[in-house]
Amino acid sequence: MHPFQDAGRPVDERAEDPFSRMTPEEKAALGVAFGRARPEGRLPFELAHSMAAVGAARPDVPNGTEAPVVPYGHGLTL
C-alpha cells in the first residue's frame, strides 16, 4: 500500500487536529495571541525582590515581604 493511502480514506480524515493535544493553558495563550480573548487577571501572590526579603518576612503573614518587586493583586483589568 502506498504510504499516503489508508484503506481508501481521504487524507483529511486521517489527519490529527493539531489543537487536540494542547492543554487548556496553551489554548488560552493562543486565544490571547490571536485576539480571540482579552488578557486579564491578577497575581494571587507577591514576588519578593530577594531571598533575603523572603527570609526576613514573617511566615504567618501572607504577602508580607518588604518592598516586593511585583505586589499582590498586580495585573490587568480591561
UniProtKB/TrEMBL annotation:
Residues 9-23 have a biased composition (Basic and acidic residues). SUPFAM superfamilies: Beta-D-glucan exohydrolase, C-terminal domain. InterPro entries: Glyco_hydro_3_C_sf. Keywords: Hydrolase. Residues 1-23, 58-78 are annotated as: Disordered. This is Uncharacterized protein. It comes from Streptomyces roseolus. The lineage of its organism: Bacteria, Bacillati, Actinomycetota, Actinomycetes, Kitasatosporales.
